[in-house]
Structure formats: structure tokens, C-alpha cells
Amino acid sequence: MGSLVVCNVFLVICISNLLFCRTSYSFYLPGVAPEDFRSGDLLNVKVNKLTSVKTQLPYSYYSLPFCRPETIVDSRENLGEVLRGDRIENSPYVFKMRQPQLCNIVCRTNLDANTAKEFKEKIEDEYHVNMILDNLPLVVPLLRSEQEAPLYQLGFHVGLKGQYAGTKNEAYFLHNHLSFTVKFHRDEMTDSARIVGFEVTPFSVKHEYDGQWNDNTRLTTCDPHAKQTVSSSNSPLEVGDNQEVIFTYDVNFQESDVKWASRWDHYLLMSDNQIHWFSIVNSLMIVLFLSGMVAMIMLRTLYRDISKYNELETQEEAQEETGWKLVHADVFRTPVHSDLLCVFVGTGVQFFAMVLVTMVFAVLGFLSPANRGGLMTAMLFLWVFMGLFAGYSSSRLYKMFKGTEWKSIALRTSFFFPGTVFAVFFVLNALIWGQKSSGAVPFGTMSALVVLWFGISVPLVFAGSYVGFRKPAIEPPVKTNKIPRQIPEQPWYMNHLFLIFIGGILPFGAVFIELFFILTSIWLNQFYYIFGFLFIVFIILLITCAEITIVLCYFQLCSEDYLWWWRSYLTSGSSAFYLFLYATFYFFTKLDITKPVSGALYFGYMLIAAYSFFVLTGTIGFYACFTFTRLIYASVKID
Predict the structure, then answer these.
(1) Is the terminal CB of the chain with fewer CB neighbours within 10 Å at N or C?
(2) The dihedral of CA 309, 637, 292, 553: what is its sign?
(3) Span 53-85, pLDDT tens digits
(4) Pick from 53, 54, 46, 56: which is nearest to 438 by CA?
(5) CB neighbours (10 Å) of residue 419?
(6) Helix or strand run (H / E) with residue 534
(7) What 8-state DSSP symbol labels residue 33?
(8) Backbone angles phi, psi at 31, to 5 degrees
(9) 170: how many CB neighbours lie within 10 A of its CB?
(10) How far lies 91's CA from each of 46, 75, 130, 194, 568, in Å?
(11) How far is residue 439's CA from residue 428's CA, in Å, rounded to a whole number?
């Protein structure tokens, strides 16, 4: 009961801290040094992948016939960036600090049937162009009348689909003129400046000029000498065969009061904090309800039961045992498929340790979006190194079940979960390769993942198993009979399948609102950097899984059903089933994915997510029930 109170007090303290501290926005990635620019310094714009929420298939920027520099130079991406499909390269867009430019001509090209078709396909699928300047992504500000602060859309559309006035035929228009705005914060002492914003407004303009085209041609649609700029798309450029395309851009520099350390705040600003607080309150109500039930069981029922059992004096009274004490000689009997349970528990411990450490680093600001791919890279490396805990916990449980082959359990712990996930990932990667997308993981990166798995994770699992197996076996508080007791017929509401699926509802209910924002950030290409909220939801999930499993485990034991080992794992783990159902609902209601490959990618990755959630929540419920069972049977006198 004391630990339950401590958990709830800690939860309230966390929420109070978030109420008075803007933890989501006050941290920035430590160790990243700002870069100072003086007037006239070159600013090199880099291009990233083309992205679409309709296909979920990224492509390299130069897969379309955009203007190219003389030599294309690839930036070095980290492991997380490669897995995300990022392909960062140099571009022909070069600015000079605090020196505005008007109607700069980048290049001129003529579309043929194939290139026109490629542009039309990307416009149809609503692809966005992504660029980077001084590690800031390019955004399109979207003004809203009800709020002063604009929303930011990552990247700009390749083009738009529309109709000419008076016609019904749809046409495709290409964004060939970009009006950039570079925001900077100036240091009055040194007159140097730091970039704090990178915005763009795209236009579709059918540029015109007099005479034949040459290097000195001046456009009549926009002219820096006459200070004539593009301010609308009234004469758009239609994509078509043998269409001439002239790419141009403007750049304007705007001084800002935003300091460099806070430049990401506008990108990460959430407009729906009230919904997040509703999510927290909703989850907190579930926790308080379950905490009340657990407290009632602990204080009233269990205390009464233990007192009654310990006051039995006569042999006749001892033979009239009822309730959970009646199965004391069977409650710690080795379950069926105990080896598999050990593997799942060990994997769950590994997953829990990875998630916990990742959350802590994210809340402290070490995994800022400024470090592209940092979150995924950190999770991969943490998963690999947490293999030590997986091996230790699985072998400790295995030895308790009288197992002797610790190498066998270590081998299965090393390969069962990672092997399943890798097989699904490999199939999905093959589908992406078939679409010639930059999201396909290259052979070198795939080899690096295998090296991490076999070279680090597997040896650490074996090391953990060796250490765990050398420890003394966990002794149950009561002895187990050689002959198993017959379980009486259970009423319908104590059916194991019914209780398992009922048990998963509350843990899922504690996180489903936050799950919506996570899915939106992943599949709708938006920033998610509210790890303060997420950390609290994670704590609530942990408490909810533990409490619902304890409650149902107690009811099960009172019904003289001692087969609780797998039931405790599956009760909280069944929340993964509801997670996958919600992901399916989200797919059909929020996403506009129509291509079969894109649908296969979505459900494949969400299957991996649900499988991971099952392992995590199942392990939390198992250890909660395991601890509870040991405590109550250690509290009674058994002859």
C-alpha cells in the first residue's frame, strides 16, 4: 500500500511541475554550437527528401528534374536519418547574409513527356519539397484568423492541381518561384547574426521574356532592376509536354527578437495543449479508480483474509480453507511453455529499460528535433545495450522454473523478438525498394543493423544470462505439491479470454489520446516534442498495467484458479490489441492512403508497434502480479 501511495504522490508532483514549467519548450539540444554570420557571408541551402502523407514513400529531391548544382554532394547522415529516408544534398540556392535578392534565375529547362508525367504524379500525390538552412527545416507559415501565431507546414508542395476559370478540366501547376524569408537575430555588440527562421512562400508563374533565351536574358514577369516581384500565381505554369520551365527565387532577410536558443519553439509550438491536459486528467481518473480498488483489496480484503488464515487453530478449521489460500500449493507451479514466457519477460525488460532511458533523455532535451534522426538512433543503440538486462531477467526466471540450459534461453531471447521484427522490416524494405524510394534502407545500413544485433546485442544477452543464472534461484514463499489441484468450473465472467481482453481496455484508455498525436506526428509529417506529457502518460500506463493485473489476478486466485503466470502477462499485454484496432480506425478516418504498398507499409509498421507494446505492457503486468502473489503468500502461515 505504501508503494502505491508513493507512486501516486510522484505522479502528482510530475504533473505539478509541468503545470508551472514549460518543460517541453525550455530545453534545447546540449552541445550544438550556434553559427555566427556576418553580412555577405554565404548561406548554403541544402535539400532533403520529397515527402507525401498520401504515399508515405520518400524520394530523393533530384529524382525530379529540378535545377542541379555543378556537383551533387551528399551530406553524411546518421543511422536514424537513413532509416527515416532522409537524403540531404547541396542545392543551387545560395544566399548572402543580410543581402536581399530579387528574381534570381536558377535554371531553365524544357519538360518532355516523361518528366512532365513525373511532376504530375508527384503533384497528384501531394509531395512536399524539404530544404534545410543552418539546420533549420524550411516551413510555410499558415496564418489563422483566430490566433496571432501561425502554424507551420514542413516544406512546400511540388505544385497544385486546379482548374482554369470557366473549365472543368483539371490541370497541374508547378511551383517554380520561391520567395524565401530568412529570419535572423543580430548581436548589437559584434553586428554578427544567427539564423532563427527559414520560411518560404511558393508561387506558380509562367515566366516570360523578350527575344531568344541567353545568359543575359531579363524576365518581364519579374525583374530585379525594375523591382518587379512575383506576388501571386495569377498566371500559373501548367505542367505539360514540351513546356518551358524557368526556376526563380527571391530572398528577404528579416530581423527577429527570437534568440537562437529558442528558435525551435515556434516549430514545436502545440496549439492543442488543452487536449493533452484532458488526456492526462482522463488517464489520472483511471489510475485513481484502479488505485482505490487495489487499496480496498490491500487494506480490507487481504488484511481480513490474512488475519483469518493466521488465526486458524484446529485441524478442522485448516481443512476448511477457502479463497486464495486454498491454492497455495499450486500457485507457484511451473506454467506450460515456461521457456517462452521467460523469453517474453526478458524482452519486455529490455524494452522497458530502453523506453525509460529514452524518455529521460528526451525530457532533458538531448533528443531535440534539431538532431535529425537522433531519437531513432538513440533507441536503436539503447535497445542493443539493454540486451544485458534481457538476458539477466530471462535466465533468473528460467532458473526459478528449474531450467538448466541457460544458453538455450539466452539464444531464444536474443533472436525471438528481434528476429520477428527484422523479418517484417525486411519484407517492408523490399516493398519500398520496388517503388525506388529513398526510404529503402541501403545494403550497408542493413549490414550495420545486423552487426549491432549479432556483434553487440547477442553477446550482451548471453553475458546477462550467464550472470543471472549464477545467482541463487528465486525461492517461492510456499512449497508446491507434486500433484496439481483440480481447478473448479469457473463462471462465465471469470473466463480467461474474457478477463484478458477486459484487462487491456483500461491501459489502452490511459494512453489513446496521446496515441493520436504520436500517430499524427509519424504519418502526417508533423513535429512531436512534448515528451513532458508523454513521460507522465508513460508513468500512468505503468501504474495502470500493474494495478489492473493485480486486481484481476486477485479475483482469479479467489476463484481457486492458480494458472496466473501467462494470464498476468496477457491481461495487460492485450492493450496492444486495442492499439492495433485504433491504428486501423486511424488509417480509415485520418489518412488518405490509397496505394496498396503504402497501406502495407502502414499496417506492417503498426504491427511492429503493437507487438512492441504487447511485450512492454505484458512484462509490466507480469512483474506486478508476480510481486503481489509472492507478498500475499509470504504473509500467511502455511503448515
Answers:
(1) C
(2) negative
(3) 999 999 999 999 999 998 998 888 888 888 888
(4) 56
(5) 12
(6) helix 531-558
(7) P
(8) 90, -5
(9) 10
(10) 5, 11, 12, 21, 56
(11) 10
Phi, psi of 238 (to 5 degrees): -85, 140
Residues paired with 136 in a beta bridge: 133
* DSSP conformational letter for 77: P
- For the segment 216-261, what is each residue's pLDDT rounded down to a tens digit? 788 888 877 767 777 777 788 889 888 899 999 999 999 999 888 8
Please give the full DSSP string across 563-609, using - where no structure is assigned: --HHHHHHHHHTHHHHHHHHHHHHHHHH-----HHHHHHHHHHHHHH
Q: And the C-alpha cell for 556?
A: 482469479
Query: What phi and psi values does residue 432 have, to the nearest 5 degrees?
Result: -65, -40
Contact 606, 586 (CB under 8 A): no
Band the pLDDT of 298: cuts 50, 70, 90: low
Q: What nine digits make up the cell of 547?
A: 494495478
Expressed in angstroms, the distance from the first to the final Cα of the chain is: 27
Rg (CA), the chain: 30
Cα–Cα distances (Å) from 335 to 310, 398, 413, 447, in that order, read 28, 11, 18, 38
Cross-strand partners of 160: 173
Strand partners of residue 310: none
Confidence (pTM)? 0.85
Tell me how far CA of residue 65 lies from CA of 115, 172, 247, 293, 443, in angstroms.
Answer: 7, 16, 11, 64, 26
pLDDT digits (tens, 9 = 90+) for 409-453: 999 999 999 999 999 999 999 999 999 998 899 888 999 999 999
Contacts of 198 (CB under 8 A, 6+ apart): 131, 132, 133, 134, 136, 137, 138, 139, 180, 181, 182, 183
Q: Tell me how far CA of residue 338 lies from CA of 333, 335, 343, 400, 401, in angstroms.
A: 10, 5, 9, 10, 7
- Mapped onto helix, strand or coil, the DSSP state of residue 118 is helix
- Among 374, 359, 349, smallest CA distance to 536 is for 359
How far is the C-alpha of 234 from the C-alpha of 230, rounded, in Å?
A: 10
β-pairing verdict for 101-110 and 244-255: antiparallel
Kindly state the cell numbers that stand for 234.
495569377
Determine which helix (DSSP H) or strand (DSSP E) holds 107, and give its type and residue range: strand 101-110
Residue 470 near residue 118, CB atoms below 8 Å: no
User: CA-to-CA distance for 98 and 227, rounded, in angstroms?
Assistant: 18
Its sign, for the CA torsion 628, 630, 634, 636, is positive
**Rounded to an integer, what distance in angstroms lies between the CA atom of residue 140 and that of residue 286?**
40
Question: Does residue 57 contact residue 431 with C-beta atoms inside 8 Å?
Answer: no
